[in-house]
Amino acid sequence: MTGLPLPAELAARAREVNAGLVAPVPARDAATVVLLRPGPEVYLLRRKATMAFAAGAYVFPGGSVDVRDTDQAVAWAGPSPAEWGTVFGAGERLARGLVCAAVRETFEESGVLLAGPGPGSVVADTTGDDWESDRLALIDRSLGFADFLARRGLVLRSDLLKPWAHWITPEIELKRFDTRFFAAVLPDGQRTRDVGGEADQVVWTRPGEAVEQAHRGEIFLMPPTYRTLSELSAYDSVPDVLAAHREIVTIMPRAVEIEGEMRLVNT
């Protein structure tokens, strides 16, 4: 049990939290999506250096659940919220919000939309100015996700998502998220684009190459991203990833003192 060494400031907070002197910040429910295309390759965004959380890190599309993501008016095709709740150990309302957040955030941060006119179809192109206007309205929260789908006559395709993992930010962090990880394939006809916002760079890369770049210090990966990419590097194709059996086990790294040094280890 070696773990990651903590910088001095975070190590000091870790000791306070572990001693019960400081209460942990509540974790916000969130969803993130590993977007895949043949190779297999994954889509990563580099968060701007000015961001308060994970600045400069390469991450998958994702973000917090909006209260409107739990709206039962969302048109739905695929496994039900109750079924997703069973998979992720969440109530039906939260499960609905997690799936909606996964699809919404993927569209906001990549331009890819996992929805279609019916349960067996997917939007073929989302690159027009009208789509961009809706994407920006979703980002600034002037448009709710259910209203967005309803106005366009679209159905959320929960069957295009695969459950992958469940990570909770360590209790020592000042910003914390309770995040369910999904995997999804880039739909035929759609393409990602540099949409800006919280990211200053986007890239498609093989999972193993991203891990090697992190080892060389060329890119920065948070532990959940590093672990997920390492897992994905074991698969030779997108179908292999989708066929993989995943048992969703909650992982919340914790700070422990090892030989006088505070380190972060997975639990």
UniProtKB/TrEMBL annotation:
<keyword id="KW-0464">Manganese</keyword>
<protein>
    <recommendedName>
        <fullName>Nudix hydrolase domain-containing protein</fullName>
    </recommendedName>
</protein>
<dbReference type="GO" id="GO:0016818">
    <property type="term" value="F:hydrolase activity, acting on acid anhydrides, in phosphorus-containing anhydrides"/>
</dbReference>
<keyword id="KW-0479">Metal-binding</keyword>
<keyword id="KW-0378">Hydrolase</keyword>
<keyword id="KW-0460">Magnesium</keyword>
<feature type="domain" description="Nudix hydrolase">
    <location>
        <begin position="26"/>
        <end position="227"/>
    </location>
</feature>
<dbReference type="InterPro" id="IPR015797">
    <property type="entry name" value="NUDIX_hydrolase-like_dom_sf"/>
</dbReference>
<dbReference type="InterPro" id="IPR000086">
    <property type="entry name" value="NUDIX_hydrolase_dom"/>
</dbReference>
<dbReference type="InterPro" id="IPR039121">
    <property type="entry name" value="NUDT19"/>
</dbReference>
<dbReference type="GO" id="GO:0046872">
    <property type="term" value="F:metal ion binding"/>
</dbReference>
